[in-house]
Design goal:
heterodimer, A: 358 residues, mainly alpha, 12 helices, globular, B: 203 residues, Four Helix Bundle (Hemerythrin (Met), subunit A)
Chain lengths: 358, 203
Amino acid sequence: MSEASDFWATPGGWTLLTLGEVLLVLFGLLICVAFILLADRKIWASVQMRKGPNVVGPFGLLQSFADLLKFVVKEVIIPAGADRVIFLLAPVLSFALGVIGWAVIPFAPGWVLSNINVGILYLLAMSSLGVYGIIMGGWASNSKYPFMGSLRSAAQMVSYEVSIGFIIVTVILLTGSMNLSAIVQHQAGGFWNWNFVGGGLKANWPLAPVMFAMMVMFFISALAETNRPPFDLPEAESELVAGYQVEYSSTPYMLFMMGEYCNIVLMCAMLSILFFGGWTAPFPTPFLAAWPPILAGLFGLLMFALKIMVWFFLFAIVKAIVPRYRYDQLMRLGWKVFLPASLAAVALVAGWRVFSAA
Amino acid sequence: MDFTAIAFGVLSTVLLGAALLVITARNPVHAVLFLILSFFSGAGLFVLLGAEFLAMLLIVVYVGAVAVLFLFVVMMLDVDFASLRTGYVQYLPLGLVISAVLLIEMVGVSGVVATRGASAAQTAAPVSDVSNIERIGQVLYTDYAYLFQGAGLVLTVAMIGALVLTLRHRPGVKRQNIAVQTARTVKSGLKIVQVKTGEGISE
């Protein structure tokens, strides 16, 4: 036993171990994305009183895998006027950026690939890079509609990133750390400690309205940042056919789509961690100390997964019931409503932290 | 040779190569993409130094915001490669003079830094247990608070200047008043008219 544990501490063993962990997270994430895609379509269908995919497998559970197979075996078509390298690089980048953010997400106490001090900044950086896949894809297609779609998305994502940044600052001010595990740990002990009701200290309850508003704003900004309806103007099918994806087919298209869904689940995970207490349960859990660490970890994972599902359900419902925004309304909401409001919230929370006794 | 040295070698090689390609790439969009690659390598070097906060800031600010705007502008350009090359010989002497001056300055500065660095390396700086985010915060908001505020003011002035330069009041632009729109009720927005057959509405 001791020989084995020694091996895992050597550079080679560590590399193997980390590779294994990365593959585990990646595999789990992709399986999740497959079923979340199905859930998205099922919820959308239910709202419209349709059945949704129900042919492949029981209840259509295997639909996403059938789609995957279909995408992979189709022909990759590259337009004649396209910039080949960038055209193919764009979907790969899009997908990689959707996956790479998961490196810092804590799934359960201690279950995190890379527990870095600037975890939340890393997430912000990776989500702000997502725009490159779209811009590059739209430009490299050398076609009008993709280009318009990518220009729209560039302006949209840069705008909403600003308010996301300020909302994250309010959370950092409350918890006093940029480490995601520390942010979650700060909210432990029951839902009254979660950040959306003031966060961690019961004396912070006057901040509850502010933080609740921040949560709602983060949710809406996350919709805009991931190009989900009602902010899916980059791919508005009634005006731009499919925006930046027009010229894409087969595997590159699939990579775009999977990257998009990875990003959406990542945003749901961020909402859970920042405002809903990550892997902590909504009630005090003193009994966990007696459990073996593996079970306690699985319990945390379950809580985290449940929260992600709740948020994803909201994402799906919004897609089904909210009509698309007009472009000027989108910009107005981002710059004239969210930016001042989140700035005011930063001032309020900072003032509270300095002048309150807590 | 340990792993840090290898990583430094790879990152700095990619950084220099990408920086070279920024100025030699024919296609301006490719040039901006190489610029982004060099920002990334720079961020990697910061991580190697243990300054992960600066690395993330470099990516968030420069790659996530500034370079997107560069790309935004460059993509809009209708690039004519023939006209780009016409002024080449004409500007060559001026370019050579400027690059010679820059080279002399850089050699001078790096010479000083190298000699000073050699002496400083022996007395290694004490590593504090405070994370570098807190350290930067302390230095920025206490020691250099006024300079920091001054920098903010400069940026604000620059932003207002850009707005003033591009602001044009065009007559006849239709604007929407959101408050008026949302204040509309059925009564004020809808008129029910009984139309007689064959007559139409005469306003």
